[in-house]
Design goal:
With about 290 residues, the protein is of the alpha+beta class. It has a single domain, classed as Dihydrodipicolinate Reductase, domain 2. About 30% of the residues lie in helices and about 20% in strands. The chain contains 9 helices and 13 strands. The strands form 3 sheets. Strands 12-11-10-9-3-8-7-4-13 form a 9-stranded mixed sheet. A hairpin with a 4-residue loop joins strand 7 and strand 8. The two termini are about 20 Å apart.
Amino acid sequence: MACADRRLHVFCEKPIGIDARQAAEMWSAYRGTDRAHYVPFWTRYFDGFRKARKVVQAGTLGEIRAFVYRWQNPRPASMPFTWRDNADVSSAGSIADVGSHSYDTLRWILDEDAKRVLTHADVITPAKPDLGEVDLQEALTWGNAHAVGDATQTRKGTAFDYASMSIEMQSGVVGTLVLSHAPVLRKGLAPELELHGSEASLSVDRIIGDVRLLRQDSTPETLAVLPDEGLGNRFKKFVFPGLRERVQGKPSEHPGLEDGYRVQLFTDAARSARQGEWMEIARVESESRE
Protein backbone atom coordinates (compact mmCIF):
# COMPACT_ATOMS: atom_id res chain seq x y z
CA MET A 1 0.00 0.00 0.00
CA ALA A 2 3.00 2.27 0.55
CA CYS A 3 3.99 1.57 -3.08
CA ALA A 4 0.46 2.46 -4.20
CA ASP A 5 0.56 5.71 -2.20
CA ARG A 6 3.81 6.65 -3.95
CA ARG A 7 2.53 5.46 -7.36
CA LEU A 8 5.30 2.88 -7.67
CA HIS A 9 5.28 -0.33 -9.68
CA VAL A 10 5.12 -3.40 -7.42
CA PHE A 11 6.21 -7.03 -7.27
CA CYS A 12 4.32 -8.92 -4.55
CA GLU A 13 4.76 -12.51 -3.42
CA LYS A 14 1.79 -14.80 -2.94
CA PRO A 15 -0.43 -14.98 -1.01
CA ILE A 16 -0.60 -11.22 -1.52
CA GLY A 17 -2.45 -10.51 1.75
CA ILE A 18 -3.34 -11.97 5.10
CA ASP A 19 -6.88 -12.51 3.80
CA ALA A 20 -9.14 -11.67 0.87
CA ARG A 21 -10.15 -8.34 2.42
CA GLN A 22 -6.54 -7.19 2.41
CA ALA A 23 -6.01 -8.58 -1.10
CA ALA A 24 -9.08 -6.65 -2.31
CA GLU A 25 -7.58 -3.43 -0.90
CA MET A 26 -4.35 -4.03 -2.74
CA TRP A 27 -5.99 -4.84 -6.07
CA SER A 28 -8.30 -1.84 -5.76
CA ALA A 29 -5.30 0.44 -5.18
CA TYR A 30 -3.77 -0.56 -8.54
CA ARG A 31 -6.87 -1.31 -10.58
CA GLY A 32 -7.40 1.27 -13.30
CA THR A 33 -3.99 2.90 -12.76
CA ASP A 34 -0.98 2.87 -15.09
CA ARG A 35 1.20 1.33 -12.36
CA ALA A 36 2.61 -2.11 -13.14
CA HIS A 37 2.17 -5.10 -10.82
CA TYR A 38 3.29 -8.72 -10.83
CA VAL A 39 2.55 -11.77 -8.63
CA PRO A 40 4.83 -14.80 -9.16
CA PHE A 41 2.53 -17.71 -9.90
CA TRP A 42 5.39 -19.53 -11.61
CA THR A 43 3.66 -22.87 -12.16
CA ARG A 44 1.64 -21.70 -15.15
CA TYR A 45 4.92 -21.20 -17.05
CA PHE A 46 5.97 -24.85 -17.05
CA ASP A 47 5.96 -26.21 -20.60
CA GLY A 48 3.55 -29.08 -19.82
CA PHE A 49 0.89 -26.70 -18.53
CA ARG A 50 1.40 -24.31 -21.43
CA LYS A 51 0.85 -27.27 -23.76
CA ALA A 52 -2.30 -28.29 -21.83
CA ARG A 53 -3.72 -24.79 -22.20
CA LYS A 54 -3.17 -24.83 -25.96
CA VAL A 55 -4.89 -28.23 -26.24
CA VAL A 56 -7.88 -26.96 -24.24
CA GLN A 57 -8.10 -23.74 -26.27
CA ALA A 58 -7.99 -25.74 -29.51
CA GLY A 59 -11.11 -27.62 -28.40
CA THR A 60 -9.39 -31.01 -28.68
CA LEU A 61 -10.94 -32.23 -25.42
CA GLY A 62 -14.42 -30.96 -26.25
CA GLU A 63 -16.36 -29.55 -23.32
CA ILE A 64 -14.28 -29.87 -20.14
CA ARG A 65 -16.28 -31.75 -17.51
CA ALA A 66 -13.82 -32.68 -14.74
CA PHE A 67 -10.26 -32.42 -13.49
CA VAL A 68 -7.90 -33.94 -10.94
CA TYR A 69 -4.86 -31.99 -9.76
CA ARG A 70 -2.31 -33.52 -7.39
CA TRP A 71 0.47 -31.44 -5.89
CA GLN A 72 2.37 -33.67 -3.48
CA ASN A 73 5.63 -32.09 -2.39
CA PRO A 74 6.91 -34.37 0.40
CA ARG A 75 9.27 -32.82 2.91
CA PRO A 76 11.85 -35.07 4.62
CA ALA A 77 10.39 -36.83 7.65
CA SER A 78 13.33 -35.53 9.71
CA MET A 79 12.95 -31.92 8.55
CA PRO A 80 12.64 -29.72 11.67
CA PHE A 81 9.72 -27.51 12.63
CA THR A 82 9.73 -24.10 10.88
CA TRP A 83 7.31 -21.18 10.63
CA ARG A 84 5.54 -23.03 7.81
CA ASP A 85 4.35 -25.61 10.34
CA ASN A 86 2.94 -22.95 12.67
CA ALA A 87 -0.71 -22.02 12.07
CA ASP A 88 -0.18 -18.73 13.91
CA VAL A 89 1.88 -17.46 10.97
CA SER A 90 0.95 -19.94 8.22
CA SER A 91 -2.75 -20.40 8.81
CA ALA A 92 -3.58 -22.06 5.48
CA GLY A 93 -0.43 -24.21 5.34
CA SER A 94 -0.16 -26.27 2.14
CA ILE A 95 -3.37 -24.72 0.81
CA ALA A 96 -1.83 -21.26 0.64
CA ASP A 97 1.62 -22.54 -0.31
CA VAL A 98 1.18 -24.97 -3.21
CA GLY A 99 -2.62 -24.68 -3.42
CA SER A 100 -2.32 -21.09 -4.61
CA HIS A 101 -0.07 -22.19 -7.49
CA SER A 102 -2.32 -25.13 -8.35
CA TYR A 103 -5.49 -23.04 -8.44
CA ASP A 104 -3.87 -20.28 -10.48
CA THR A 105 -2.73 -22.86 -13.02
CA LEU A 106 -6.22 -24.38 -13.21
CA ARG A 107 -8.00 -21.06 -13.68
CA TRP A 108 -5.41 -20.05 -16.29
CA ILE A 109 -5.83 -23.28 -18.28
CA LEU A 110 -9.63 -23.41 -17.98
CA ASP A 111 -10.11 -19.63 -18.21
CA GLU A 112 -12.59 -19.50 -15.33
CA ASP A 113 -12.82 -19.23 -11.57
CA ALA A 114 -14.26 -21.50 -8.91
CA LYS A 115 -17.85 -21.15 -7.79
CA ARG A 116 -17.65 -23.09 -4.53
CA VAL A 117 -15.22 -25.19 -2.49
CA LEU A 118 -15.49 -28.03 0.04
CA THR A 119 -12.29 -28.79 1.92
CA HIS A 120 -11.00 -31.53 4.17
CA ALA A 121 -7.64 -30.60 5.67
CA ASP A 122 -5.47 -31.97 8.44
CA VAL A 123 -1.94 -32.24 9.86
CA ILE A 124 -0.86 -35.80 9.11
CA THR A 125 2.92 -35.50 9.64
CA PRO A 126 4.12 -36.80 13.02
CA ALA A 127 5.84 -34.44 15.45
CA LYS A 128 8.95 -32.83 13.95
CA PRO A 129 12.37 -32.16 15.46
CA ASP A 130 12.24 -28.79 17.25
CA LEU A 131 15.51 -26.90 16.92
CA GLY A 132 14.13 -23.50 17.86
CA GLU A 133 14.39 -20.60 15.41
CA VAL A 134 15.64 -22.07 12.12
CA ASP A 135 14.93 -20.97 8.57
CA LEU A 136 13.77 -23.24 5.77
CA GLN A 137 17.25 -23.85 4.33
CA GLU A 138 18.68 -24.71 7.75
CA ALA A 139 15.79 -27.11 8.33
CA LEU A 140 16.32 -28.83 4.97
CA THR A 141 20.06 -29.17 5.58
CA TRP A 142 19.57 -30.62 9.07
CA GLY A 143 16.80 -32.92 7.91
CA ASN A 144 18.92 -34.40 5.13
CA ALA A 145 21.76 -35.16 7.54
CA HIS A 146 19.83 -36.44 10.57
CA ALA A 147 16.99 -38.69 11.69
CA VAL A 148 14.03 -37.66 13.82
CA GLY A 149 15.56 -39.54 16.76
CA ASP A 150 18.60 -37.26 16.71
CA ALA A 151 16.50 -34.38 18.02
CA THR A 152 16.29 -33.77 21.77
CA GLN A 153 12.73 -32.49 21.46
CA THR A 154 9.93 -32.56 18.91
CA ARG A 155 6.93 -30.38 18.10
CA LYS A 156 3.70 -31.21 16.29
CA GLY A 157 2.79 -28.90 13.44
CA THR A 158 -0.48 -26.97 13.49
CA ALA A 159 -0.62 -25.67 9.91
CA PHE A 160 -2.37 -27.98 7.43
CA ASP A 161 0.08 -30.22 5.55
CA TYR A 162 -2.64 -32.16 3.73
CA ALA A 163 -5.83 -31.08 1.99
CA SER A 164 -8.38 -32.66 -0.34
CA MET A 165 -10.55 -30.01 -1.97
CA SER A 166 -13.71 -30.60 -3.99
CA ILE A 167 -14.24 -27.73 -6.42
CA GLU A 168 -17.06 -26.64 -8.68
CA MET A 169 -16.09 -24.08 -11.30
CA GLN A 170 -18.39 -21.35 -12.60
CA SER A 171 -19.28 -23.36 -15.74
CA GLY A 172 -20.14 -26.49 -13.75
CA VAL A 173 -16.79 -28.25 -14.26
CA VAL A 174 -16.07 -30.35 -11.17
CA GLY A 175 -12.78 -31.52 -9.80
CA THR A 176 -10.52 -32.52 -6.95
CA LEU A 177 -7.34 -30.84 -5.76
CA VAL A 178 -5.01 -32.88 -3.51
CA LEU A 179 -2.29 -30.91 -1.74
CA SER A 180 0.37 -32.20 0.60
CA HIS A 181 3.77 -31.59 2.16
CA ALA A 182 3.53 -34.74 4.29
CA PRO A 183 6.48 -37.17 3.88
CA VAL A 184 4.29 -40.17 3.01
CA LEU A 185 2.46 -38.68 -0.01
CA ARG A 186 5.15 -39.22 -2.60
CA LYS A 187 4.95 -37.73 -6.06
CA GLY A 188 5.57 -39.60 -9.30
CA LEU A 189 2.98 -42.40 -9.13
CA ALA A 190 0.35 -40.51 -11.10
CA PRO A 191 0.26 -37.50 -13.41
CA GLU A 192 0.02 -34.15 -11.67
CA LEU A 193 -2.93 -32.94 -13.73
CA GLU A 194 -5.80 -34.69 -15.50
CA LEU A 195 -8.39 -32.88 -17.61
CA HIS A 196 -11.44 -34.80 -18.78
CA GLY A 197 -13.65 -33.54 -21.61
CA SER A 198 -16.57 -34.72 -23.70
CA GLU A 199 -14.23 -35.75 -26.54
CA ALA A 200 -10.98 -36.73 -24.85
CA SER A 201 -8.86 -36.62 -21.68
CA LEU A 202 -5.44 -35.10 -21.15
CA SER A 203 -2.77 -35.72 -18.53
CA VAL A 204 0.36 -33.76 -17.62
CA ASP A 205 3.12 -35.58 -15.75
CA ARG A 206 5.60 -32.91 -14.68
CA ILE A 207 8.21 -35.41 -13.41
CA ILE A 208 8.44 -37.55 -16.55
CA GLY A 209 7.37 -34.70 -18.81
CA ASP A 210 4.68 -36.62 -20.69
CA VAL A 211 1.61 -34.79 -21.99
CA ARG A 212 -0.80 -37.54 -23.05
CA LEU A 213 -4.14 -37.54 -24.84
CA LEU A 214 -6.70 -40.33 -24.45
CA ARG A 215 -9.81 -40.70 -26.59
CA GLN A 216 -12.61 -43.16 -25.94
CA ASP A 217 -11.71 -46.77 -26.81
CA SER A 218 -8.14 -45.92 -27.83
CA THR A 219 -4.64 -46.13 -26.42
CA PRO A 220 -3.04 -43.00 -24.91
CA GLU A 221 -1.20 -40.77 -27.38
CA THR A 222 1.90 -38.91 -26.22
CA LEU A 223 1.58 -35.35 -27.51
CA ALA A 224 4.86 -34.11 -26.08
CA VAL A 225 7.66 -34.98 -23.68
CA LEU A 226 8.50 -31.83 -21.72
CA PRO A 227 10.54 -32.70 -18.61
CA ASP A 228 10.71 -30.16 -15.83
CA GLU A 229 14.07 -28.48 -16.35
CA GLY A 230 13.35 -25.53 -14.08
CA LEU A 231 12.55 -21.99 -15.06
CA GLY A 232 16.01 -20.43 -14.84
CA ASN A 233 16.22 -16.72 -14.03
CA ARG A 234 12.52 -16.17 -13.43
CA PHE A 235 12.80 -12.42 -12.90
CA LYS A 236 14.56 -11.97 -16.23
CA LYS A 237 12.19 -14.32 -18.08
CA PHE A 238 8.86 -13.34 -16.55
CA VAL A 239 8.82 -10.56 -13.95
CA PHE A 240 10.55 -7.80 -15.87
CA PRO A 241 8.75 -8.51 -19.19
CA GLY A 242 5.42 -8.64 -17.31
CA LEU A 243 6.05 -5.36 -15.55
CA ARG A 244 7.33 -3.77 -18.77
CA GLU A 245 4.15 -4.70 -20.65
CA ARG A 246 1.99 -3.01 -18.05
CA VAL A 247 4.26 0.05 -17.84
CA GLN A 248 3.78 0.41 -21.60
CA GLY A 249 0.02 0.00 -21.28
CA LYS A 250 -0.02 -3.29 -23.19
CA PRO A 251 -2.34 -6.21 -22.34
CA SER A 252 -0.43 -8.86 -20.42
CA GLU A 253 -1.03 -12.54 -19.69
CA HIS A 254 1.47 -12.40 -16.86
CA PRO A 255 -0.13 -12.74 -13.40
CA GLY A 256 -0.76 -9.57 -11.43
CA LEU A 257 -2.63 -8.34 -8.38
CA GLU A 258 -6.02 -9.31 -9.80
CA ASP A 259 -4.81 -12.90 -10.10
CA GLY A 260 -3.46 -12.61 -6.57
CA TYR A 261 -6.87 -11.46 -5.35
CA ARG A 262 -8.77 -14.22 -7.20
CA VAL A 263 -6.46 -16.86 -5.76
CA GLN A 264 -6.82 -15.37 -2.27
CA LEU A 265 -10.61 -15.74 -2.54
CA PHE A 266 -10.06 -19.43 -3.22
CA THR A 267 -7.59 -20.02 -0.39
CA ASP A 268 -9.85 -18.09 2.02
CA ALA A 269 -12.74 -20.35 0.98
CA ALA A 270 -10.69 -23.28 2.29
CA ARG A 271 -11.95 -22.32 5.76
CA SER A 272 -14.73 -24.73 4.85
CA ALA A 273 -12.29 -27.30 6.31
CA ARG A 274 -13.19 -25.94 9.74
CA GLN A 275 -16.88 -25.37 9.01
CA GLY A 276 -17.58 -28.70 7.31
CA GLU A 277 -19.70 -27.26 4.50
CA TRP A 278 -19.44 -25.88 0.97
CA MET A 279 -18.09 -22.34 0.83
CA GLU A 280 -19.33 -20.10 -1.97
CA ILE A 281 -16.65 -17.92 -3.52
CA ALA A 282 -19.23 -15.16 -3.97
CA ARG A 283 -19.71 -15.09 -0.20
CA VAL A 284 -15.97 -14.71 0.40
CA GLU A 285 -15.81 -11.98 -2.27
CA SER A 286 -18.71 -10.09 -0.71
CA GLU A 287 -17.08 -10.26 2.72
CA SER A 288 -13.78 -9.05 1.27
CA ARG A 289 -15.39 -5.82 0.08
CA GLU A 290 -17.34 -4.98 3.24
